[in-house]
Amino acid sequence: MFTGIVEELGVVEALEDQGDAVRLTVRGPHVTVDARLGDSISVNGCCLTVAARDGETFTADVMRESLDKTSLGALQPGGRVNLERAVTPQTRLGGHIVQGHVDGTGAVVRRQPSEHWEVVEVSLPADLARYVVAKGSIAVDGISLTVVEAGPDRFTVSLIPETLARTTLGLKEPGDPVNLEVDVVAKYVERLLAHGTPSDPKDPA
Protein backbone atom coordinates (compact mmCIF):
# COMPACT_ATOMS: atom_id res chain seq x y z
CA MET A 1 0.00 0.00 0.00
CA PHE A 2 1.08 3.57 -0.73
CA THR A 3 -0.06 7.09 0.14
CA GLY A 4 0.40 8.84 -3.21
CA ILE A 5 3.11 11.13 -1.85
CA VAL A 6 5.91 10.86 -4.40
CA GLU A 7 9.32 10.49 -2.76
CA GLU A 8 11.52 10.91 -5.79
CA LEU A 9 11.64 11.46 -9.54
CA GLY A 10 13.50 8.45 -10.86
CA VAL A 11 15.10 7.87 -14.26
CA VAL A 12 14.51 4.85 -16.49
CA GLU A 13 17.94 3.31 -17.00
CA ALA A 14 17.06 0.29 -19.13
CA LEU A 15 14.18 -1.68 -20.62
CA GLU A 16 14.92 -5.32 -21.49
CA ASP A 17 12.25 -6.81 -23.76
CA GLN A 18 11.49 -10.40 -22.75
CA GLY A 19 8.62 -11.01 -25.14
CA ASP A 20 5.73 -11.38 -22.71
CA ALA A 21 7.34 -9.06 -20.16
CA VAL A 22 9.84 -6.24 -19.74
CA ARG A 23 12.65 -6.06 -17.22
CA LEU A 24 12.66 -2.43 -16.06
CA THR A 25 15.65 -0.81 -14.37
CA VAL A 26 15.17 2.54 -12.65
CA ARG A 27 17.65 4.85 -10.96
CA GLY A 28 16.32 6.24 -7.70
CA PRO A 29 18.96 6.89 -5.00
CA HIS A 30 16.39 7.78 -2.34
CA VAL A 31 14.01 4.82 -2.67
CA THR A 32 16.80 2.28 -3.14
CA VAL A 33 18.77 3.27 -0.03
CA ASP A 34 16.96 0.63 2.04
CA ALA A 35 15.36 -1.46 -0.73
CA ARG A 36 15.50 -5.23 -0.40
CA LEU A 37 14.56 -7.99 -2.80
CA GLY A 38 10.80 -8.48 -2.73
CA ASP A 39 10.03 -4.95 -1.57
CA SER A 40 7.27 -3.00 -3.30
CA ILE A 41 7.96 0.29 -5.05
CA SER A 42 5.34 2.32 -6.89
CA VAL A 43 6.51 3.38 -10.36
CA ASN A 44 4.11 5.93 -11.87
CA GLY A 45 1.41 4.46 -9.66
CA CYS A 46 2.08 0.80 -10.51
CA CYS A 47 3.12 -1.45 -7.64
CA LEU A 48 6.27 -3.31 -8.75
CA THR A 49 8.42 -5.82 -6.90
CA VAL A 50 12.15 -5.29 -6.52
CA ALA A 51 13.82 -8.23 -8.29
CA ALA A 52 17.38 -6.87 -8.19
CA ARG A 53 19.24 -3.93 -6.74
CA ASP A 54 22.58 -2.45 -7.77
CA GLY A 55 23.71 0.68 -5.98
CA GLU A 56 21.25 3.44 -6.81
CA THR A 57 19.17 1.35 -9.23
CA PHE A 58 16.53 -1.33 -8.83
CA THR A 59 15.08 -3.74 -11.37
CA ALA A 60 11.52 -5.04 -11.60
CA ASP A 61 9.72 -7.39 -13.95
CA VAL A 62 6.66 -5.90 -15.66
CA MET A 63 4.30 -8.50 -17.12
CA ARG A 64 2.38 -8.07 -20.37
CA GLU A 65 -0.90 -7.37 -18.54
CA SER A 66 0.67 -4.34 -16.85
CA LEU A 67 2.29 -3.15 -20.07
CA ASP A 68 -1.03 -3.33 -21.92
CA LYS A 69 -3.20 -1.71 -19.25
CA THR A 70 -0.90 1.01 -17.89
CA SER A 71 1.37 3.69 -19.30
CA LEU A 72 4.47 1.65 -18.39
CA GLY A 73 4.46 0.23 -21.92
CA ALA A 74 5.26 3.71 -23.24
CA LEU A 75 8.36 4.22 -21.07
CA GLN A 76 11.69 4.90 -22.78
CA PRO A 77 15.26 4.99 -21.42
CA GLY A 78 15.92 8.40 -19.90
CA GLY A 79 12.27 8.97 -19.05
CA ARG A 80 11.29 10.25 -15.61
CA VAL A 81 9.02 8.28 -13.29
CA ASN A 82 7.37 8.91 -9.93
CA LEU A 83 8.71 6.65 -7.17
CA GLU A 84 7.29 5.82 -3.75
CA ARG A 85 8.16 3.05 -1.31
CA ALA A 86 5.39 1.06 0.35
CA VAL A 87 4.07 2.49 3.61
CA THR A 88 5.04 1.18 7.03
CA PRO A 89 3.02 1.31 10.30
CA GLN A 90 5.04 4.44 11.18
CA THR A 91 4.37 6.26 7.89
CA ARG A 92 2.25 9.41 7.89
CA LEU A 93 -0.74 8.99 5.58
CA GLY A 94 -0.19 12.30 3.88
CA GLY A 95 -2.24 11.51 0.78
CA HIS A 96 -4.89 8.77 0.64
CA ILE A 97 -4.91 4.98 0.47
CA VAL A 98 -3.31 4.03 -2.85
CA GLN A 99 -2.97 0.34 -3.73
CA GLY A 100 -0.71 0.67 -6.75
CA HIS A 101 -3.30 -1.21 -8.82
CA VAL A 102 -3.98 0.93 -11.89
CA ASP A 103 -7.66 1.05 -12.88
CA GLY A 104 -7.11 2.58 -16.29
CA THR A 105 -5.25 5.21 -18.25
CA GLY A 106 -6.12 8.73 -19.24
CA ALA A 107 -4.23 11.50 -20.97
CA VAL A 108 -3.41 15.12 -20.25
CA VAL A 109 -5.96 17.18 -22.19
CA ARG A 110 -4.83 20.70 -21.40
CA ARG A 111 -2.84 22.76 -18.93
CA GLN A 112 -3.89 26.16 -17.64
CA PRO A 113 -1.11 27.93 -15.71
CA SER A 114 -1.76 30.72 -13.26
CA GLU A 115 0.44 32.76 -10.97
CA HIS A 116 0.68 30.30 -8.08
CA TRP A 117 -0.71 26.98 -9.37
CA GLU A 118 -1.66 25.17 -12.54
CA VAL A 119 -4.93 23.50 -13.50
CA VAL A 120 -4.51 20.26 -15.42
CA GLU A 121 -7.38 18.54 -17.21
CA VAL A 122 -7.15 14.77 -17.65
CA SER A 123 -9.30 12.47 -19.78
CA LEU A 124 -11.14 9.72 -17.94
CA PRO A 125 -12.38 6.31 -19.15
CA ALA A 126 -16.18 6.22 -19.02
CA ASP A 127 -16.28 3.18 -16.75
CA LEU A 128 -14.28 5.02 -14.06
CA ALA A 129 -16.26 8.27 -14.10
CA ARG A 130 -18.73 7.09 -11.42
CA TYR A 131 -15.90 6.81 -8.90
CA VAL A 132 -14.57 10.34 -9.43
CA VAL A 133 -16.24 13.22 -7.58
CA ALA A 134 -15.37 16.85 -6.90
CA LYS A 135 -13.24 17.16 -3.75
CA GLY A 136 -12.62 13.40 -3.83
CA SER A 137 -9.26 11.67 -4.16
CA ILE A 138 -7.62 10.16 -7.23
CA ALA A 139 -4.10 8.93 -7.98
CA VAL A 140 -2.60 10.19 -11.24
CA ASP A 141 0.69 8.46 -12.07
CA GLY A 142 0.79 7.51 -8.40
CA ILE A 143 0.29 11.09 -7.14
CA SER A 144 -2.47 11.60 -4.59
CA LEU A 145 -4.56 14.51 -5.86
CA THR A 146 -7.85 16.19 -5.04
CA VAL A 147 -10.38 16.42 -7.86
CA VAL A 148 -11.51 19.98 -8.58
CA GLU A 149 -14.17 19.28 -11.21
CA ALA A 150 -15.46 15.91 -12.42
CA GLY A 151 -17.26 15.21 -15.70
CA PRO A 152 -18.39 12.13 -17.62
CA ASP A 153 -15.12 11.76 -19.48
CA ARG A 154 -12.59 14.05 -17.78
CA PHE A 155 -11.62 15.77 -14.54
CA THR A 156 -9.38 18.59 -13.39
CA VAL A 157 -6.81 18.94 -10.63
CA SER A 158 -4.93 21.98 -9.32
CA LEU A 159 -1.19 21.54 -8.89
CA ILE A 160 0.93 23.58 -6.52
CA PRO A 161 4.56 24.43 -7.43
CA GLU A 162 5.86 21.63 -5.17
CA THR A 163 3.88 19.01 -7.10
CA LEU A 164 4.98 20.45 -10.45
CA ALA A 165 8.64 20.39 -9.39
CA ARG A 166 8.73 16.96 -7.73
CA THR A 167 6.53 14.80 -9.98
CA THR A 168 6.08 13.86 -13.62
CA LEU A 169 3.02 16.10 -13.86
CA GLY A 170 5.37 19.03 -14.12
CA LEU A 171 6.70 17.47 -17.34
CA LYS A 172 3.60 16.05 -19.00
CA GLU A 173 2.34 17.63 -22.21
CA PRO A 174 -1.18 17.42 -23.70
CA GLY A 175 -1.62 13.96 -25.16
CA ASP A 176 0.78 12.26 -22.74
CA PRO A 177 -0.71 9.17 -21.03
CA VAL A 178 -1.15 8.89 -17.28
CA ASN A 179 -2.09 6.02 -14.97
CA LEU A 180 -5.28 6.42 -12.96
CA GLU A 181 -6.32 4.73 -9.73
CA VAL A 182 -9.66 5.72 -8.27
CA ASP A 183 -10.39 5.73 -4.55
CA VAL A 184 -10.76 2.09 -3.47
CA VAL A 185 -13.33 3.12 -0.82
CA ALA A 186 -15.74 4.14 -3.61
CA LYS A 187 -15.41 0.72 -5.22
CA TYR A 188 -16.14 -1.09 -1.97
CA VAL A 189 -19.19 1.09 -1.31
CA GLU A 190 -20.51 0.36 -4.80
CA ARG A 191 -20.02 -3.37 -4.29
CA LEU A 192 -21.82 -3.36 -0.94
CA LEU A 193 -24.76 -1.34 -2.27
CA ALA A 194 -25.10 -3.61 -5.29
CA HIS A 195 -25.66 -6.59 -2.99
CA GLY A 196 -28.12 -4.79 -0.70
CA THR A 197 -28.19 -4.78 3.08
CA PRO A 198 -27.49 -8.23 4.54
CA SER A 199 -30.06 -9.65 6.91
CA ASP A 200 -29.21 -10.16 10.57
CA PRO A 201 -28.14 -13.80 10.97
CA LYS A 202 -30.08 -13.85 14.26
CA ASP A 203 -33.34 -12.95 12.52
CA PRO A 204 -35.77 -15.85 12.07
CA ALA A 205 -35.87 -17.27 8.57
CATH topology of the largest domain: Elongation Factor Tu (Ef-tu), domain 3
- Order of the strands making up the biggest sheet: 4-3-7-1-2-6-5
Round the mean pLDDT to the nearest integer and report it: 92
Largest sheet: 7 strands, antiparallel
| SSE string | EEHEEEEHEEEEEEHEH
Radius of gyration: 18 Å
Quick summary:
With 205 residues, this protein is mostly beta strands.
Explain how this protein is built.
By secondary structure, the chain is mainly β. The chain has two domains: 8-85, Elongation Factor Tu (Ef-tu), domain 3 (Beta Barrel); 104-191, Elongation Factor Tu (Ef-tu), domain 3 (Beta Barrel), CATH 2.40.30. 13% of the residues lie in helices and 40% in strands. It contains four helices and 13 strands. It has helices at residues 29-32, 64-69, 161-166, 184-194, and strands at residues 8-17, 21-27, 40-43, 46-49, 52-54, 57-63, 80-85, 104-113, 118-123, 137-140, 143-150, 154-159, 177-182. The strands form two sheets. It has a seven-stranded antiparallel sheet with strand order 4-3-7-1-2-6-5. A six-stranded antiparallel β-barrel has the order 8-9-12-11-10-13. A hairpin with a 2-residue loop joins strand 3 and strand 4 (46-49). The longest helix is centred in the C-terminal third of the chain and has 11 residues, at 184-194. The radius of gyration is 18 Å and the shape is globular. It starts with 7 loop residues before the first strand and ends in an 11-residue tail after the last helix.
